[in-house]
Amino acid sequence: MKRLRPIAAFLLYLCLLASARPAPVQADSLDHAWASPPPEARLRAYWWWLNSNVTREAITRDLEEMKAKGFGGALICDAGGAEQRNNAQVPRGPVFFSAAWRELYRHALREADRLGLEMSLNIQSGWNLGGPIVPADDAPKKLTWSELRVTGPARVAAALAAPKARDNYYRDLFVLAWRVRADLPTKRAPLQNQLEKALLRPLRPFSAPDTTPLFQETAATPGEEDARADEIVDLTGRLDPAGTLNWDAPAGDWQVLRIGCTLNDHCRVSTCSQGWEGYALDPFDAGAFRRYWEKIVEPLIADAGPLAGKALKYLHTDSWEVEVANWTPTLREEFRARRGYDLLAWLPVIAGRIVNSRNESNRFLADFRRTMGDLAIANHYRLFREGAHRHGLLIHPESGGPHAVPIDAQQCLGYNDAPMSEFWATSWKHRIGDENRFFLKQPASAAHTYGRRLVLAEGFTTIGPHWQETLWDNLKPSFDK
User: Fold this and answer.
1) DSSP letters of 259-289?
2) Phi-psi region of 275 (alpha: psi -120 to 50; beta: other; left: phi over 0)
3) What pLDDT, on the 0 to 100 scale, is given for residue 7?
4) Which of 47, 181, 246, 261 has a CA that sits 20 to 30 A from residue 317's CA?
């Protein structure tokens, strides 16, 4: 039989008590608790259904072994097994969410109930919500643009180049113009980390050591701004369906910006089982989430029947895997409602321009990121929590990251019934160094802030060869940290 190498040979789903004011315990009761932990303190397993390759017999055997070895439960996690570091593919099983798969899922819940195990369900196959049922309009998006210089006074009938697009998906949004200043400095520094601030490129996440952070920005140069916000001209209505700008341009040189949206660079589900390939879900779009919930999650909850809230206690989604995305259909309206002004005249800042001043452009970018973060919480994680609670279920998504999440993670983790993150096993090839491996202080802090008793962690994550790892020499040191 072909040797199988799953992505992670040993991942644990760990419940850590996180009471802000733990009650004092007697030594004898603590000794007893270590010898025979209460159900909520027992280990949970990441129970991989790699490529959906499971059977009724294997399900029963796995759960009986978990019970015999003292586990408190497991997270059913359907995923692919061959997308990273040349892992061999696991033989294919029933497609996720198919009738055959759902019968195996129901069998798992019945067996867990029989054995007194507490189950969680990953409500997708792979790392992010999505699949073949998600249309491109519901996928994560980013802004894209093209530029043209025109000179007036003249009647302009100019073709504006179509901005770069991905997966043949492009939607026009706005056309803006501003008069090019003759006295603009020939040399000026760009906004510090402008691409990252505009959510066009991810920053590498890390776990910060004790430090005093300082805001850094290049000093402003007098007269360096490209335009004043009140000088930006909205030409959106002057663009015809063929992409031609028809405009009576006033005197002077004018910079024209054609802005649209396309799908982002991580617009597809990552590491799913075969047969579930498709678009990922726009994490800022409430309609997209509700459509996925009705099509996929409600039927899975219905499959659980009376075991929902009993043997099936939690619903789960994995860490943020769509990388950077910075557009959603309701963004302009939401931005105006949440920040109190229109973002339209400030969109050239996304394209690297300075509007009004360096300071005000940075303030707009901060408002922009904050609005995207607010939408991720309100239109995704809040809806997730509300939907689960309607059925007596709880949630523990890895909603704080660690991948380039444009949110207030402390606030977002507060929507979890159990804040959750992860830590990685020691590696010399991937996530080298403790600052790149441990992401647990933030969910622990959220648990204290919001009064959550449990903190969960995906533990000993690893990518690549790990067959030489042992519990004592390789894994325990990471657990102790």
Assistant:
1) EEEEE-TT-B-SSPPTT---EEP-TT-HHHH
2) left
3) 37
4) 261
Q: Which two tokens stand for residue 360?
A: 């005000």
Q: How far is CA 281 from CA 139, 143, 267, in A?
A: 5, 17, 8
> In one letter, which amino acid is 226?
D
Whether the Cβ atoms of residue 79 and residue 50 lie closer than 8 Å to each other: yes
What's the confidence (pLDDT) of residue 474?
A: 73
Residues of the chain scoring pLDDT < 50: 1-11, 16-21
Tens digits of residue pLDDT in 396-411: 999 876 666 788 889 9
- Cα–Cα distance measured from residue 345 to residue 254, given in angstroms and rounded to the nearest whole number: 15
Rg of the Cα atoms in the chain: 26
The DSSP code sequence of 210-276 is S-------PPP-TT--SB-GGG-EE-GGGB-TTSEEEEEEEEEEEEEEEEEEEE-TT-B-SSPPTT-
Please count the other Cβ atoms lying within 10 Å of the Cβ belonging to residue 225.
Answer: 21
The token pair that represents 382 in the structure block: 């809040």
Torsion sign over Cα 277, 278, 279, 280: negative
Check whether domain 12-135+269-326+369-480 has CATH 3.30.420, yes or no:
no
Which residues lie below 8 Å from residue 311, measured CB to CB, with a gap of 6+? 109, 110, 112, 113, 117, 118, 119, 304
Print burial letters for 183-215: b (CB count within 10 Å at least 16), e (below 16): eeeeeeeebeebebbbbbebeebebeeeeeeee
Half-sphere exposure (Cβ direction) of 426: Cα atoms closer than 13 Å: 14
Between CA 251 and CA 255 the distance in angstroms is: 12
CATH 3.20.20 domain extents, the chain: 12-135+269-326+369-480
Burial 234-251 (b: 16+ CB within 10 A, else e): ebeebbeeeeebebebee
- Please name the residue that has the structure tokens 């969680």: 120
CB-based contact 423:460 (threshold 8 Å): yes
Confidence (pLDDT) at 211: 52
Q: What is the pLDDT of residue 9?
A: 34
**Predicted pLDDT at 204:** 57
Pairs from 426-429 (Cβ < 8 Å, separation ≥ 24): 426/474, 426/477, 426/478, 427/462, 427/463, 427/464, 429/463, 429/464
Q: Which residues contact 99 (CB under 8 A, 6 or more apart)?
A: none
pTM, entire model:
0.90
